[in-house]
Automatic annotation (TrEMBL):
GH3 middle domain location: 225-303
Similarity section: Belongs to the IAA-amido conjugating enzyme family.
Protein name in UniProt: Indole-3-acetic acid-amido synthetase
Transmembrane segments: none
Gene Ontology MF: a single term: acid-amino acid ligase activity
Gene source species: Musa troglodytarum (fe'i banana)
Keyword Ligase: yes
All copies of domain GH3 C-terminal, residue ranges: 319-441
Length: 473
């Protein structure tokens, strides 16, 4: 959606700036020597972005040099500092995903004193060493003791409710994705923003641009995207199909064309793109909500088969099972094993982290055996082993981006998962068909599990990750 079209919904956006926290990720090389990187990294590094003409509706507070810096700390520090220096010009605050904006608020909580010192002195901290960032920030940074005192006063209160509108009082809305897995962050964003509207403007992925939200200021629960048929050739696999696409054992008749989808039904998105993807399964499950003229509109329901997600990471059941098996091997010398497990994406703290609930069985039931497992730090090593077994996107988020916290294993007492089954059956589940859910989110179930926790353990170090090893996966 062209920026100036926003004036139909929010007037005066050409009179101020957007405080957007934008970041590049590390590049990798494929075995064939091709550069591999996320689509937004490609865009930010492109000539199209770096030499973009002036557009009064699309002015950022963040210098391009800060956006292009691969060091997450230096990039965030510079973008936050420039946002504070231009706080009265800010009309909208945003990131790509909702989790990214919470990371920015957490960064402010941790570093406001250093930021205030820089503002008061008119000099950038030596911690930011990138010369292009230092040059760009120097053009804005002048001694301003009044601003420093104001920011310090707001941040030192210990009350972070409505902090966005307190520091950036002219903010009209948040520009963040809060659909799908990001919906879990809505209450926290409402707390920090004082209830500002949250605009979800577009639906896209690295493979293709899919559609637009023609009512961007609607409630997040009502967001629907209108598919743009000129972006690719779109087909839809009715959800509940056998998991294949034509050419892989399924007749073409299973696919539904764009014009033939039915309101209320769910489909998995399949695309053929100009770049050469042929009937590629994106992995998104969509529900048809209506039509705009002849173009169908879809609500994003979820990623297919994804159990855990904090940010851009997507861990499915097979990956989680592999990670549990890898970690539980460390218990064998202690004659212990994992009887049952489930998981939860804990986003109450920033950054969020994976929580894995384990019920253990010790073949040697003596207290000394259990004490040895705890005393020797085995469970902490199990946490790290799980992280090492997860995919490269997760590990990059842990190591390079800091957008995911250390994985946690919570050991529950014996019989907990039987209690979990009893609870499910009491709510109508069939005892013959009951299977332990590999991911849980309902508050009553989490309360049950947490009330049975006997010990909690965190990964003692980040997992191994490098751009080189990511390319070879």
């Amino acid at each position: 959606m062209a920026s100036r079209q926003w004036n139909s919904y929010v007037a005066g956006l050409d009179k101020g700036k957007g405080l957007y926290f934008l970041f590049v990720k590390s590049e990798t090389k494929t075995p064939g020597g091709l550069t591999a990187r996320p689509v937004l990294t490609s865009y930010y590094k492109s000539e199209h972005f770096q030499s973009r003409p002036y557009d009064p509706y699309n002015v950022f507070t963040s210098p391009t040099a800060a956006i292009l810096c691969a060091d997450a700390f230096q990039s965030m520090y510079a973008q936050m500092l420039c946002g504070l220096l231009q706080r009265l010009d800010v009309l909208r605050v945003g990131t790509v995903f909702a989790s990214g904006l919470l990371r920015a608020i957490r960064f402010l909580q941790l570093h406001w004193q250093e930021l205030c010192n820089d503002i008061a002195a008119g000099a950038l901290t030596p911690k930011v060493t990138d010369p292009s960032i230092r040059g760009a920030v120097a053009e804005l940074l002048k001694p301003d003791t009044e601003l420093a005192r104001f920011v310090a006063a707001e941040c030192s209160k210990g009350d972070w409710a409505s902090i966005i509108t307190r520091i950036w009082p002219n903010t009209k809305y948040l520009d963040v994705i809060v659909t799908g897995a990001m919906a879990q962050y809505i209450p926290t964003l409402e707390y920090y923003s004082g209830g500002l509207p949250m605009a979800c403007t577009m639906y896209a992925s690295s493979e293709c641009f899919f559609g637009l939200n023609l009512k961007p200021m609607c409630d997040p629960s009502e967001v629907s995207y209108t598919i743009m048929p000129n972006m690719a050739y779109f087909e839809f696999l009715p959800h509940g199909g056998d998991g294949h696409v034509p050419g892989a054992g399924v007749d073409k008749a299973q696919l539904v064309d764009l014009a033939d989808v039915e309101v209320g039904k769910e489909y998995e998105l399949v695309i053929t793109t100009y770049a050469g993807l042929n009937r590629y399964r994106v992995g998104d499950v969509l529900r048809v909500t209506g039509f705009h003229n002849a173009a169908p509109q879809f609500r994003f329901v979820r990623r297919k088969n994804v159990l855990l997600s904090i940010e851009s990471d997507k861990t499915d059941e097979a990956e989680l099972q592999k990670a549990v098996e890898s970690a539980s091997a460390l218990l064998q010398p202690y004659n212990a094993s994992v009887v049952e497990y489930t998981s939860h994406a804990d986003t109450k703290a920033i950054p969020g982290h994976y929580v894995i609930y384990w019920e253990l069985l010790a073949k040697d039931a003596s207290p000394s055996a259990a004490e040895a497992v705890t005393r020797d730090g085995v469970l902490e090593r199990c946490c790290l082993a799980m992280e090492e077994a997860l995919n490269s996107v997760y590990r990059q988020s842990r190591v390079a981006d800091g957008s995911i916290g250390p994985l946690e294993i919570r050991v529950v007492r014996g019989g907990t998962f039987e209690e979990l089954m009893d609870y499910a059956i009491s709510r109508g589940a069939s005892i013959n068909q009951y299977k332990v859910p590999r991911c849980v989110s309902l508050p009553p179930i989490l309360e049950l599990l947490d009330s049975r926790v006997v010990s909690a353990h965190f990964s003692p170090a980040p997992p191994k990750w490098s751009a080189h090893c990511a390319a070879n996966q």
